[in-house]
Amino acid sequence: MKRMTVGIDEMWDDLQRGVEQIYADAEPLTRARYMTLYTHARNLMNTIDVYDGPRKYHITVYAVYQHVEAFLRNHVATRFDAAKGVTTEDTLRLYTSKWERFKICSKVLSHLLTLDNVKWWRKEWLQGTENVYGTYQLALVTWKDVLLSASGGKIIDGVLALIEDDRRGKPVDTSLIRGVVFSYVDLSMIEEKPSKDPFKLQVYETAFESRVPQRHQALLRTYEMGGGWNMTISRST
User: Fold this and answer.
1) CA distance linking residue 84 with residue 74, whole number of Å
2) Which of 14, 84, 132, 212 has minimal CB crowding within 10 Å?
3) Contact 163, 219 (CB under 8 A)
4) 84 compared with 144, residue with greater pLDDT
5) 3-class SS of residue 231
6) CB-count exposure of residue 126 (10 Å: 0-12, 13-18, 19+)
7) Does residue 22 register a pLDDT over 70?
């Protein structure tokens, strides 16, 4: 019979407050606070819970993983709320700023949980467990699955509108186009089962190339040939 680990909820309460602090638009963690959270994480993920079954060592790590996954889904679900009713450029500016901030915060979280989480994740991966990721990969998968599923169409429409405005000679901030495109390229790199083709960028291609031929194929070709920012740059680096 499984014996419940004592203190997991109590330790998680403070760890969760720390995770929320990492992702908040506030002052960064102090070194002392980071070390406190690091100790909580290590204690949680090194608490051995003895019970019958093959997953004995990893029960507490999985509990932390579930808490983090739930937090990320709730956090990402609200990232784009402020985009309602704003202009196209403001929508893309909000998206790119939130994306860059989210990546930085997720790297901090990944470092916080990295040691035992990585060992556990690798074992799960080798055992063929699906939909289990390292912390940073989990964050990006959550962004893709939660935010892009709800707002991806609006974001892509905004990018295509800016491309068209640019080609018509209207002043646009092309860094916003680059920022969105490169975010989709980044999200293409976190697929659980990568394509055999190292240059296949599934998330990017699904979002852009499946729609561009119908609306902006000629414009896109101009960009790819050097008429503007280069949408193929990540394929050649």
Assistant:
1) 18
2) 84
3) yes
4) 144
5) coil
6) exposed
7) yes
- Contact residues for 9 (Cβ-Cβ < 8 A; gap 6+): none
Cα 232 to the center of its chain, rounded Å:
22
What is residue 147's DSSP assignment? Answer: I
Burial grade of 1 (CB within 10 A; 0-12, 13-18, 19 or more): exposed
The owner of tokens 């990402």 is 76
- What is the C-alpha separation between 64 and 60, in angstroms, rounded? 6
Reported residue count of the chain is 237
Residues 6+ apart with CB under 8 A from 110: 134, 135, 136, 139
Say how far apart CA 78 and CA 70 lie, in whole Å: 13
Handedness of CA 14, 69, 143, 84 (dihedral sign): negative
Residue 70 has pLDDT above 60, yes or no: yes
Tell me the residue type at 99: W
Q: How far apart are CA 80 and CA 55, in angstroms?
A: 38
Contact 64, 113 (CB under 8 A): yes
Token pair 């609306």: residue = 215
> In 3-state terms, what secondary structure has residue 191?
coil
Q: Which residues of 159-197 are buried (b: 16+ CB within 10 A; e: fewer)?
A: bbbbbeebbeeeebeeebbbbbbbbbbbbbebeeeeeee
pTM of the model: 0.76
